[in-house]
Design brief:
The protein is an all-alpha fold and 73 residues long. The protein has one domain (2-67): Alpha Horseshoe (Serine Threonine Protein Phosphatase 5, Tetratricopeptide repeat), CATH 1.25.40. The protein contains four helices and no strands. The chain has helices at residues 2-11, 15-28, 33-45, 49-67. The longest helix has 19 residues, at 49-67. The chain is globular. The relative contact order is 0.15.
């Protein structure tokens, strides 16, 4: 539920709310890569580029691990 609401907030130009829900989605399921991608998008819109890139890398690594692909460095 948090991830879907986060996406809705992103689409409604409410990035702070989107970030809050993306973080909550990650708390609920720490290995779910989509939560990290939503955080990355929210952080990017908020102008937090470095944090956005870190969240994107975390999401990529989680997705790669789930699919049995080597980590992104």
């Amino acid at each position: 539920m948090c991830a879907r609401r986060s996406l809705c907030y992103l689409m409604s130009d409410m990035p702070k709310e989107a970030l809050d829900d993306a973080i909550q989605a990650q708390v609920i399921s720490p290995v779910w890569h989509v939560a990290s991608y939503l955080q990355s998008a929210s952080l990017g819109i908020l102008g937090m580029e470095k944090e956005s890139q870190i969240a994107l890398k975390e999401g990529s690594n989680l997705e790669a691990k789930m699919n049995g692909v080597p980590r992104v460095k």
